[in-house]
Design a protein that fits this description.
The chain is mainly beta and 119 residues long. It contains no helices and eleven strands.
Length: 119
Amino acid sequence: QVQLVESGGGLVQAGGSLRLSCAASGSIFGINVMGWYRQAPGKQRELVAVITSAGSTNYADSVKGRFTISRDNAKNTMYLQMNSLKPEDTAVYYCNVQWWSSSSLNNYWGQGTQVTVSP
């Protein structure tokens, strides 16, 4: 059983910073992709950033230059450093991990953590 637990969300003023963490536990294949997604009220869930187990990263255009994704494979933990936050960054942020095994996609989500950015 795979569990993902996010932490670090909260209320911050525009221009401020937050650091999200995602602690993973359970049987996770060593070669995987972890990512942060977010969902604002009334909107679809969208990709924020992803990072492979080898350290390659990809970001949504809206967060490039402001957010940094990282991971510590030894601790099975992923991070999202969010700087220069904007009110439009307000959303529930979800942690995700995916890997392929025997032609099947394994896909797990955390419960989400609220990030609220005030003007």
